[in-house]
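Entry for the shared binder. Reason: the reviewer on the internal report wants the predicted structure included alongside the sequence.
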Amino acid sequence: MFYCRALLILALFSALPPGRAAVVFEFDYSAGHEFLDPAAGAVRRSALESAAASLGAIFAHDATIQLAVTSSNDPQGDLLASASSEQPEIPFDFFGYSPGIVQQKILQGIDANGAAADGAVDVNFGQPWDFGDQVSPNLFDFKATMIHEILHAVGFSSSIFEDGADGFGTPPGEPGVWSPFDEFIAGPTGVSLIDDNYALNGPGWASASTGGASPRAGLTFNGPNAMAANGGQPVGLYSPRQWDEGSSGSHLDDDNPALAGMLMLAATDTGPNTRELSAIEKAMLEDVGYTLASTATPANATLTIRQMGSTIKLTIEGNRGTYAVARSTDLNNWVPLTTLTISQNGGSTSYDVPFNTTTNRAGYFSATQQ
């Protein structure tokens, strides 16, 4: 933020709108004993909260999500971590797509389970973790893993079991209850596997769910935004020849080289991993209902002021962009004045504001990139 004072004028510049929407994650560590370790607990908690904050900032939604934390120390276990959402009660006569409590709370503002935790996070500290930002090649990237897992809790996850049943045991061919992600589950040609009556195509599922590598075989995701981000083609989902419970259908396809390096692959390795969602992964979140915050690069600009008799000249100089100018008398209540545009990098634009020279009080001004 840039500050400039002249007489009694304070000019403020911000690249992001005040009060920008975001999803905030809160954690209950009472059952996460390794997170409460006297020596290492603080670093572990800080890394989890940092990862969650960076993920929450990508959403253009206002919500606070409570996650219950558990942990273990199992060097022999092959599980690094997991995260999930609690599920709301489903009416007996409901068929269709039902979001988990986390997704429902973010998108609809409904807290279906009240004071109870909205979801859960579990971490195995028997594995070698690096909690920092310069990740050792011999350690797992804790923050990248936490972002990946919490994304499952917010809805990047299929609810279809190996045999094609839904969470209530409804078999293929009968109307079921599915996650919003499942609406876009398709075979290798991009044809949806759940029909308009919410029934899963059993033979199609049996063939694709263990079909192997995309794009020639296996499951795909055919959401319109995802396909647009993927050159008009459905996005390959992880569909190994042997069903992998908890991974099959809920991740991008590890066996498709075109998706290599993306955050939501099923497997990870030691060393630094991406902590950023690709355009395809962001588009998939949009398909399941989310609005994402703008990813535009903040303009490099300055706001300067100059008194010229009974006028104050506000000048914005810097990179191309559109800026909303406002005035306040108390830094709390802002009154819009105008919108200014810099048409090219290195340009400038100005606006004249009347100035009461008798009282010598102009107030405060802000210019915020839109």
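Summary line for the report: Residues 70 and 122 are 5 Å apart (CA to CA).
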